[in-house]
Amino acid sequence: MNESLTNGPLSGIRVIDHTTALAGPYCTQLLGDLGADVIKIERPDGGDQSRGWGPPFVGGESAYFLGTNRNKRGMTLNLASTEGREIFSRLLQKTDVLVHNIPRESSRKKLGLDEVTCLELNPKLIWASITGFGNTGPYAEKGGYDIIAQGMSGTMYVTGEPNHPPIRFPTPIADLTAGIYTALAVVSALYVRERTGKGQAIDTALLDSQVTWLSNLASNFLTAGESPKKLGNAHPSIVPYQPFPTADDWIIVAVGSERLWKSFVAAIDLPRLSEDKKFKTNADRLAHREELVNLLAEHFKKKNSKDWLKKLESAGIPAAPIYKPEESLSDEHLLARGMIIELEHPAIGAFKMLGNPMNFSNTPVTYRRPAPMLGEHTVEILAELRYLKKDIENFKSKKVV
Predict the structure, then answer these.
(1) Phi, psi (deg, nearest 5) at residue 290
(2) Distance CA 258, CA 256 (A)
(3) Which residues does residue 252 pair with via DSSP β-bridges, in sequence order?
(4) Using the 8-state DSSP alphabet, how is residue 373 labeled?
(5) Would you say domain 250-321 falls under CATH 3.20.20.20?
(6) 76 pairs with which residues across the strands?
(7) What's the pLDDT at 271?
(8) How far is CA 157 from CA 175, 219, 231, in A?
(9) Does CATH number 3.40.50.10540 belong to domain 3-213+332-397?
(10) Cα R_g (the chain), whole angstroms
(11) With 60 as the cut, is the pLDDT of residue 349 above it?
C-alpha cells in the first residue's frame, strides 16, 4: 500500500521508529494511525524485545507486540555494520521524524542516531528521544522501565488502600503517557517546521511523564503544602466520589457539585443527609468523610446495582457499574464508537485490537496494516531507496538486513 495516499492528518509524513518495548512503539503507532508512513527498524537477530513478551502468543506472534505496532512497515537493519549505517543515512535523508529510545549518548553516536549527526544530515528532521529519565539532569542515561517511573513519580505511593503496600497501576501508564506526550510534541514540531523550515529535537522522559499524573495532588502540595495521602478509591477533594457496594455488586457514584448533592440526596431517599449540618457543603462532607461514607455504604447495600443505577441516572447523578475488562471491551457504546477494530495478519488471520480514540470529521484515523512480521518490508523499503536487487542480496548475505 502506498502510505502517501492516505488522507489522515499526517499523510505524506515519514517516520522512522527505532524503538522497542512500549513507549516508543505506542507513540509511532499513534502517528501511523494519523496517516504517517512509519518504518519500524529492528535488529535482524530477534527484533523488538516485546516480540518475545508472552504468553499469550497467537500464531507465534506476541499479543503484546501486535497491540502496539499496527500501521507500520517492518525493516531489519544492523546499525553496527558500516553498510547498515549507510542505508540508515540514506533513509534518514528522506524522513520527517525519527523516534528512538536509546538512553546513552555514546550508544547513539556509535549507531549514528545522536541528535547532532541526524540533524546535520537532515536539518528538517524532528528527532524524538524517549528514555527513562531524559537526556539532561543527574539521572540522564540511566536505564528505566515503566515500573521505575511509577515508583519514583510518587503515584505508586498514593495508589491503593491506606495502610497497604504501594500498588503498581496494572497497565504501563508511564510508557503510554510518554508515548502520547511524544506524539503530541512531534505533531507540534511538525507545525513549527511548516512555519520555519527547521527541524528540532524532542526529549521525553518516562519519569517526567508519569509525575504529571500527580496533577491535582501536586497542586495541593506545591501551592498549599498539603502532602498527598493514600485514599484508596476516594477522592481527595470531593465526597462522595467513589465506588460503593450494593446488594449484589458495586457501583460508582460521583457527586461533584452542590447542585448534584441536592439531587443525590433526593434520589436515594435518605433524609438524614439533608437534615444533618455536617453534610451541608462539600467542605463539611470532607471533614466528616468517614461518617458519610459508612452511612452511604450501608444504605446502598439495601438494593441491587441495577435499581440504584436506574434511580441515580434518572436524577442526573453521574453513576456507573464497575466493569471487568472483558465487559468493557464488549460494551455497546465502545463498540459504537469504533474502539474495537479488526485487522488481517498474514500469520494469524483476522484479529481484534483496541482502536484509536481520536476522531476527526474530515481526516479520520485509519487502520491500514497489522504489526509487521520481522523484516517483512525490508526489500520493499530498500527498493524505494533505489538499491539494486544485487545490492539487496549482498546485504542479506552479510546480515546487514
Answers:
(1) -60, -45
(2) 7
(3) 243, 320
(4) P
(5) no
(6) 42
(7) 87
(8) 18, 17, 11
(9) yes
(10) 25
(11) yes
Domain extents in the chain: 3-213+332-397, 250-321
End-to-end CA distance of the chain: 22
| Options 37, 146, 175, 208, the catalytic residue | 175
SS3 readout for 48-71: CHHHHCCCCEECCEEHHHHCCCCC
What is the enclosing helix (H) or strand (E) of 277? none
The continuous run of DSSP H or E covering 265 comes out as helix 258-268
**Residue 175: active-site member:** yes
SS (HEC) of 75-96: EECCCCCHHHHHHHHHHHCCCC
Residue in 32, 40, 41, 62 with CA at minimum distance from that of residue 50: 62
pLDDT tens figures, 10-46: 999 999 999 999 999 999 999 999 999 999 999 999 9
250-321 shares the fold of 3-213+332-397: no
Give pairs for 102-111: CB < 8 Å, separation 24+: 102/18, 102/129, 102/131, 103/131, 103/132, 103/133, 103/140, 103/141, 103/142, 103/143, 103/144, 104/141, 105/135, 105/141, 110/80, 111/79, 111/80, 111/85
Q: How many helices (H) and strands (E) does the chain have?
A: 18, 13
Q: Model's pTM, two decimal places? A: 0.93
